[in-house]
Specification:
With 265 residues, this protein is α+β, with helices and mostly antiparallel strands. It has five helices and 14 strands. The protein is globular and about 65 Å long.
Length: 265
């Protein structure tokens, strides 16, 4: 049976310039965004095409040279050809722990919940493909929204849990992340040498992940004086988010944001 192509909502990866020029008031520039197509096949094809550009940067025994959509329902998403001429398969899975549409998703979440979600996605795919004869098979996770883009620590925590999780159906497990201009980064989660100790894992799980979204930011006042000193006040809006998470997030010494600061020097 041929694959169906239902629409698929996607998130947004964005960036905005915060202009801090000497002797001028602070100003906000336009928002730069990257968004996958709503059509499922088009979105997955774009993820695959962009991931292929970044694959050579990973130290892999076999590199993926090309990919075409797998023709059948209930099978992997792509047939692939490696650089040595051998063939295999790719299954895609978006990491988006949603209870509804992206528009209603929390702006912030505890990293431990995201780690558990990512590992559960791998476990479900493992159950689906173990023993079905699709080999070698690569599981390619991807993220299409700022709020669900993991930090290096969160990514290392996912890799640590996967190191003791059965994913034998897959040759590799990777994750593709996007910049606001659409440039991809692909990280190999398994096999991988990352191993966090118990205390580092506890710290990773307690972090608040998410973003101070620049698109919803409001400039209240401030600027940069002639000597280069900056005094600027921005107000952020965290939709669908509890105040407890906002307070924890704001206590972090490095609050994640999607501003590109332009000093104009």
């Amino acid at each position: 049976m041929a694959k169906r192509t239902p629409p698929r909502p996607t998130g947004t990866i964005s960036k905005r310039k915060l202009l801090l020029q000497r002797g001028r008031s602070t100003s906000l520039g336009a928002v730069e965004t990257f968004k996958l197509p709503h059509d499922k096949v088009a979105a997955e094809t774009l993820v695959m095409d962009k991931s292929l550009l970044a694959f050579p940067l990973m130290d892999l025994p076999k590199q993926v040279r090309s990919a075409v959509p797998h023709p059948l329902q209930n099978g992997p998403d792509f047939n692939i050809v490696f650089d040595d001429g051998s063939t295999g398969f790719v299954e895609l899975a978006e990491l988006a722990p949603l209870q509804g549409p992206f528009a209603k998703a929390c702006q912030l979440m505890r990293a431990g919940d995201f780690i558990d979600h990512a590992v559960n996605v791998v476990r479900k795919k493992q159950s689906k493909y173990l023993g079905r004869g699709y080999a070698p098979l690569i599981l390619m996770l991807y993220v299409s929204d700022d709020r669900f883009t993991p930090s290096r620590l969160t990514t290392a925590a996912i890799a640590t849990v996967l190191s003791v999780t059965d994913s034998s159906a897959f040759m590799y497990v990777t994750i593709t992340l996007f910049a606001p201009n659409g440039d991809p980064t692909v990280v190999r989660l398994k096999p991988n040498g990352w191993r966090l100790d118990l205390f580092a894992m506890m710290d990773a799980r307690e972090k608040i992940m998410g973003i101070a979204n620049a698109e919803n930011a409001k400039l209240i006042s401030g600027g940069r004086d002639a000597n280069g000193y900056v005094d600027t006040t921005l107000r952020f809006y965290y939709p669908n988010t509890t105040m407890d998470l906002v307070k924890e997030f704001s206590r972090d010494p490095v609050v994640a944001h999607n501003f590109d600061i332009d000093l104009g020097d």
